[in-house]
Amino acid sequence: MRPSVMGVLNVTPDSFSDGGRYLDPEQAVAHGLELAAQGADVVDVGGESSRPGATPVPEAEERARVVPVVEALAPHVRVSVDTVKPAVASAALEAGATMLNDISASLWPIAAEAGAGYVAMHMQGTPRTMQRDPHYREVVDEVVEFLRERAGAASEAGVTEVWVDPGIGFGKTAAHNLTLLRHLPALVDLGYPVLVGTSRKAFLGPLAADAQGTPAPAGERLEGSLATAVWAMAAGAAMVRVHDVRPTVEAATLVGPARVATGGGQ
Ligand code: HH2
Asked: Which of 15, 45, 50 best tests ligand 1's pocket when mutated (most atoms within 8 Å of CB)?
């Protein structure tokens, strides 16, 4: 079986890669259906950017962005909601989302109450400040211990589908991100399915710099996104969160049987 692919759908004006493209609900729904047609197993709908330095969105506005899109997509594909606001999470789960993608790793009671799947992601700080000076005593241990605790609390609260995510780029330097990828099996060993999101993220820019050393912009990071998605899947990630669904599904189809053959992953 291949690892799952979560397609990113940002209904925002300011997301770092697709901001402003799907703020119109009709365009957002059309793109979500397109992601599903390309093979996305889950479409992750978000109404507030979490890019470094992003400003928070008022609750009513985030809800108005997300709920109609969730409602329209839910009959066609599994939908997750990417939010840190309890009221938005509850409204989206009521509108048909069956997974709560929580970058604050604190909303599990809402997932438990709704009988939904739950993603606990690690972040150091908040989106506004997280990239100012990320530092760790030992990044892998700290991320693994944090997720052990949060995922354990979610399970104890009655969530039956708990995912953990190292939060690539969330209060982490490029070196932290690469170290976490290199040590992903330590996270897989926790026993929860692992989700990884590297797609188009800033740390990939310098790795794909041009001859003058100019980092690749967000729209030109497909190779790095695919390479790191394959790396994560081969190391045991059960799902990757990506903007470029079709090529990632193809990669997942290739990696899947290899993982079984080498005994990696769930
Ligand atoms: N990354 C982003 C947002 N949500 N959720 C999980 N579980 N894991 C991630 O790595 C993750 C996430 C950031 O990417 P994107 O949604 O494309 O951008 P923005 O936050 O600017 O909307």
From this structure: 50
Would you say residue 226 has pLDDT above 70? yes
CA distances from 159 to 115, 144, 155 (A): 7, 19, 5
Q: Is the pTM of this model over 0.90?
A: yes
Best residue for ligand 1 mutational test, from 196, 241, 243 (most atoms within 8 Å of Cβ): 241
- The catalytic residues are 201, 241
Supply the pLDDT for residue 241. Answer: 98
At 127, is the pLDDT very low, low, confident or very high (cuts 50, 70, 90)? confident
Residue found by looking up tokens 């079986």 in the block: 1
Kindly state if the Cβ of 144 falls inside 6 Å of ligand 1.
no
